[in-house]
Amino acid sequence: MKMSHYLRQGKSENYQDAEEKGLLKAGAVATLLSKQLGMKITAKELEVFATEWHHAGVFKRGDGQSFQGRKVYFFSPAGIEKITREKIQANRDKAAKKAPPDTRHVQGWYTQYFRITDPVSRRSYNKPFIGIYTGPVNKAPKGFRALADEAFAAAEKLRGKELKAGEIPRF
C-alpha cells in the first residue's frame, strides 16, 4: 500500500509514517508560532529545532537540468511547546554574527583543467594547464596558490602552459 503512495506522491515511507503519527511540518509550525508569539517566523528558522526530517522526494533544480533531493522537517507537539521567543531570537542573532567573507586581494596560480577529445580514439580526458587568478580570497578557485609579485609576473608568462601529470611549476 505504501509503495503505491510513494509512486504517486514521491514521499518516502518514513515521511508517510511521520504524517500518520501526526507530526507537524515546519511550515505549519512556523504559521502556528507566528500567531502565538506575535512575530514573523519562517520555516527555515525552525530547522534547528526539528524533531526529525525525511526526504520529500527528488525535484528539478532551478537550472532545469539537474535534480535535487529535498528535506521536510517534522515537529512533535511536545517539541513545539519548547520553542520560545528567546530561543528563536538567539538563533537569529547567531546567524547574524557570521564572520564577513575574507575579501583581501590575492594573486597566484592554480591548475586549470580542459576537457579534450582525442581525434583518433574519440576518448575524452582532462588535460591540466596553468591558470592565473587575481581577485578576492573568498572567490579563489580550488587548488589556488598565492604568489609574490616577481613570481606572479613569471607565472603570467606561462599562463596556459600544459602541465605534465603531477608536475608543479616553479616560478
What's the number of extended β-strand segments? 6
Strand content: 25-35%
Q: How widely separated are the two ends?
A: 66 Å
How would you spell out the order of helices and strands?
HHEHEEHHEEEH
- In round numbers, the mean pLDDT is 88
Largest sheet: 3 strands, antiparallel
What is the spatial order of strands in the main beta sheet?
A: 1-3-2
Radius of gyration from the alpha-carbon trace, in angstroms: 26 Å
Please bin the fraction of helical residues: 25-40%
Shape: elongated
| Continuous helix count | 6
Structural class: alpha+beta
Low-confidence segments, ≥5 residues, pLDDT <50?
none
Short description:
By secondary structure, the chain is of the alpha+beta class. The chain has six helices and six strands; from the N terminus they run H-H-E-H-E-E-H-H-E-E-E-H.
Quick tags:
single chain; 171 residues; alpha+beta; 3-stranded antiparallel sheet; elongated
Describe this structure in words.
This protein has 171 residues and is α+β, with helices and mostly antiparallel strands. The protein is 32% helix and 28% strand. The strands form 2 sheets. A 3-stranded antiparallel β-sheet has the order 1-3-2. It is elongated, with a radius of gyration of 26 Å. The N and C termini lie far apart (66 Å).
